[in-house]
Amino acid sequence: MYKVTLIPGDGIGPEVAAAMVKVVESTGVDIEWEKVDAGAGVIDEYGTPLPEHVIDAIKRNKIAIKGPVTTPVGKGFKSVNVTLRQTLDLYVNLRPVKSFKGIKSRYEDIDLVIVRENTEGLYSGIEHKIGDYGAETIKIITKPACERICEFAFNYAKDNNRKKVTGVHKANIMKLSDGLFLNTFRDIASKYPDIKSDDLIVDAACMNLVINPEKYDVMVMPNLYGDIVSDLCSGLVGGLGMIPGANIGKDYAVFEAVHGSAPDIAGKNIANPTAIIQSSVMMLRYLGEQEAAAKIENALVKVFEKGENLTGDLGGNATTDEFTNEILKYI
Q1: I need a labelling partner for 274 at 20 to 30 A (CA). Which of 13, 74, 129, 173 fits?
Q2: Where is each Isopropylmalate dehydrogenase-like domain found (predicted)?
């Protein structure tokens, strides 16, 4: 039996997390869920959106899966997601982007992976005001962090029969910080002669992903670029509601839906749970439960190909429960 920390989140989080639990349990994998709450809804009780007992639960179980958690824009508390990544040293943000037949998109047969450095860069959280005139954010990039994220990208490519790794940067402008990332990427690439490698300036990468996304395989990059590029890529395959995510470190792993909490539709039973269900597929593979992961993935393929009982964002009018039951039927 596995013990997994379950963080439902807020907004639509509890609804999509409940759907995910039903789907995972239908595969027969024996999981005990330790449910803990985080987000805006717990601030009044604990004075923070991320109580210490949530961190303790993840450390105890080593593995967690979470729904979306609201992050205020321009004010308020620090992102729960960023805090988790930094506190637990979850230095890899892994986001596979793959097309499903039956999901409306301008593109077909997309299959690429974003590997994002998850603890440094402009998300380091070091900011200060310059009087009333301005504000400054400090971008931190260190060689050890560059080495381990690039090593992860090349090892992932080797272990998953991927052919190429592309390093994404802005070293033409930020010659020291992004220059360090680029030079480290090239050094690491030289240790993997059987895997093709190239590098690309981030703005050119965004343009090329829109024009010829099929040219890319595994892409590794600093924190902010990874956030932006992975969202761009989600738009190629149907939106953020389709994209899974994993935050992986040496000791812990937290799997998550990468989309927002969508408070405007919370409680209406119309949210699409695909992202967190796909994240559970990544979690099961991480646990070594390959057969269970394949069952869910194959069921999703059949549901999308058939095109019945899809949620509104996917062109249907099914409820969250109806969509989930359709997946369960094929499992």
Answers
A1: 74
A2: 3-327
- pTM summary value: 0.93
Residue 306 a catalytic site member: no
What does the pLDDT look like over 81-118, one tens digit per residue?
Answer: 888 999 999 999 999 999 999 888 889 889 999 999 99
Of the residues 10, 199, 227, 313, which is catalytic? 227
Q: Which of 91, 123, 156, 252 is catalytic?
A: 123
Is 10 among the catalytic positions?
no
**123 a catalytic residue:** yes
Which residue of the set 37, 91, 170, 199 is catalytic?
A: 170
Query: CATH homologous superfamily of domain 1-103+240-331?
Result: Isopropylmalate Dehydrogenase (3.40.718.10)
CATH of 106-110+121-236, one of 3.40.50.2300, 3.10.50.40, 3.20.20.70, 3.30.470.20: 3.40.50.2300
Give pLDDT tens digits for 263-316: 899 999 999 999 999 999 999 999 999 999 999 999 999 999 999 999 999 889
